[in-house]
Amino acid sequence: MKVRLLDIAHARSGDKGDTANVGVIALRPEWYPVIRTYVTLAAVQAHFKDAITGPVERYELPNLNALNFLLHGALDGGGTLSLKTDAQGKVFSTAMLRLVLDVPEDEAKAANLPGPKQWPVYQRSPKE
Amino acid sequence: MTPTHDQAGQRIVRVASGQGFWGDWLEAPRRQVEGGDVDYLMLDYLAEVTMSILQKQKERDPNMGYARDFVGAFESVLPAVAKRGVRVVANAGGVNPPACAAAVRQVARKHDVSDAVRIGVITGDDLLPRLDELIAGGHALANMETGEPLSTVRERVLSANAYLGSVPIVDALAKGANVVITGRSTDTALTMAPLRHEFGWKDGDWDRLAAGIVAGHIIECGAQCSGGNCLVDWQTIPDLANIGYPIVEGSADGSFVIAKHPNTGGRITVASISEQLVYEMGDPHAYITPDVIADFTTIRLEQIGENRVRVFGIKGRPATDKLKVSIAYRAGFKAVGSLVYSWPDALPKAQLADRVLRERLGRLGLHFDKILTEFVGASATHGRLAGEPHDPPEVQLRIGVRGEDRAAVERFTREIAPLVLNGPPSVTGFAGGRPKVEEIVAYWPALIDKRVVQPKVEVLA
Description:
The complex is a heterodimer of chains A (128) and B (461). Chain A is α+β, with helices and mostly antiparallel strands and 128 residues long. Helix content of chain A is 23%, strand content 27%. Chain A is elongated, with a radius of gyration of 15 Å. The two termini of chain A are 13 Å apart. In chain B, strands 1, 2, 3, 4, 5, 7, 8, 9, 12, 13 and 20 form an eleven-stranded mixed beta sheet that branches. In chain B, strands 6, 15, 16, 17, 18 and 19 form a six-stranded antiparallel beta sheet that branches. Helices cover 27% and strands 26% of the residues of chain B. Chain B contains twelve helices and 20 strands. The two termini of chain B are 21 Å apart. Chain B folds into two domains: 4-125 and 163-320, no CATH class; 328-441, Alpha-Beta Plaits. The chains are: A alpha+beta (128), B alpha+beta (461). At the A-B interface, strand 2, strand 3, strand 4, strand 5 and helix 4 of A face helix 9, strand 15, strand 16, strand 17 and strand 19 of B.
């Protein structure tokens, strides 16, 4: 089943030099294992491949039901060098939440994950 | 003010956050001291590049170089400081803490409460006058991100400040200061130091020191932990106009509660605190400060009441023998200009304007290190992840350049407005005029041996 990260997690992002960090937090404790399993390093690398020039690091914080990602080379040099609107990486958080996970049906059902049927019409991408 | 106690009879110390950056809500400091009991007011003014701006101001006027907002903030809380015993800790000193202290003294004198205000001034973080001596002594001050030695940009350095920890602030409080003004202190030390002072935490109390750092991290961005910029359930966060800034209620064992004053807006939940905990986080196992290394994977959160979250279980370990140094240097020039294109075909019009502008810049033979185009309303913040926009009513073309050659950047700023009459149609939004050329002051993070930095603490009589 397709699951939007937006529906099962919230996020905040910030900067350190040319690196953006994105913290992803499960909206319910029982959804943390889902994000831990499916929001992988490879998935996040692929998601941001057009947006960053460096590698990605991934950390787990089970105590906060959260993951932390460091996206290197994300901010056009960062700080005052950057010409970007989002020079401080403030909305990489919501860009991360555009990620769509592929969760096996039984697992999605067991965790009571909201799927495409719950996606509001206005938020559906034209491809759906 | 005598510290109060919680319901179990444990002594608690309240540290209120009144400013998350230079430019934060001017009302917040006064609201924090008037909305209920607090023991300390913590005000954070310094972002990474703030020091260089202040250094430029000090070069123009030797009595400047500090966060001037603090003088007004101090005046707004003066009755609480002078009559109710609230103590203030602020890194408002910038590159000139003594000048900041002098301005504060003047305010106290004006209100005839000089006797009630004892100012602690912390210096020693400024390494600029010692830079050549340090480099000659084998301190490369290599860039933490690129590894390059500082000698490559030495001639362009504007400011260099070591991040000091909690010890000098604790020292100033122990000497009786009720207003402590620091230069480049870590943001977290401004909160941890009052707790350390009140509870007598020593080197070796790593878990408690780490807890103080976590408390500092949670409240150092002001209302960003109490409902501000909070994504989770944002539509239902009450009364943002009247948002309550956070307060740490610290206990001797290192556990603490994040709360806010009654009858204020915003929301403090496990989710809102979690969002702030992950903000600007690196490796969560090692949050490195001059005082202690805190392990963010040990933090436990518990909702213990409405707008009250208890934080506990935090583990720490000994600090390293290095201090981080924040160095600012001149790194060329930049300018950003924009125009707004309207429906129909707003995006293709803006895209054509971008191509036309780039072709003209090329024909002029102008060279830049970077030209960046964004289409605000289509893809500026999420890029290709946003997908194709659906016939937007307008799109802002936002184009920026940077480079070493000021004249080239200047010329670029004159190429935007002509597009209004000689480029694609349906264009507006140029009332702001020609973009400004800005000198870029870039950030150079480095490390230095702790032993070569000697903080100085002075309490003014």
